[in-house]
Amino acid sequence: MKARILIVEDEPAIVDNLEYALQTEGFATMSRATGGGVPSLLESERIDLIILDIGLPDVNGLELCKTIRQHHSVPVIFLTARAEEVDRVVGLEIGADDYVVKPFSPRELCARVKAVLRRTRCAPSATASAPPLEVVDHKHCVRCFGQPLELSRYEYALLKILVEHPGQVFSREHLMDRVWDDPLASMDRTVDAHIKNIRKKIKAVQPEFDPIVTHRGIGYALKENP
Ligand code: CA
What separation in Å is there between the alpha carbon of 138 and the centre of ligand 1? Predict the structure, then answer.
């Protein structure tokens, strides 16, 4: 999916140049000539980064950024017309991710956009809100804190059953019945081997996280609140 960049700038020539440069680099763009509608726009649209002019006709870009920060962590790159504004951008704790002083080259700004997106997408805060385990059925995938686990067919089917019924204890026989086409051909320990692999793969994503409980002599369950 293309990253979507919102340009908030009242000089049409700058907007045109930026949109052209960003679209050439594969970004999707939106633009607004005023800042007043930006907070509500963020409620209704997915925006991955904002390029924000400080000197807008209706609001001050720095104030707008503070307002945005109350509810959103979307990265912001400021456009400033004067060098003295840079001191305010850097000095104020408004959570700007970068700034560019006019006049600037659109290519330079594209490079900054890419750098900020790389940085913020890897940040733990980006995945902090993701659930510990989540089955994404149409993709045949289970995500662990937002990261897809690379599971084999049987591992996926086993983990899906456990995740969809937290707290419920499943016997090995029951799991085999539901997951394997020919349960009689396999031994109990096949389930054990697959569970062991799943645990290893979850640990690789989140070392402290061990959501599967072994019920000795019976089978397995997912912790009620993993
Ligand atoms: Ca302006």
Answer: 45
pTM value > 0.90: no
- How far is ligand 1, taken at its centre, from the CA of residue 72, in Å? 23
Strand partners, 202: none
Alpha helices in 151-212 (DSSP H): 153-164, 172-179, 188-205
| pLDDT tens figures, 108-156 | 999 999 998 887 765 443 344 678 898 988 778 898 888 888 888 888 9
CA dist 181 and 108 (Å) reads 57
The span from the CA of 149 to the CA of 200, in Å, is 10
User: Among the residues of 56-168, which ranges form H helices?
Assistant: 61-69, 83-91, 106-122, 125-128, 153-164
215 CA → ligand 1 middle, Å: 65
Q: How far is the CA of 89 from the centre of ligand 1 (A)?
A: 15
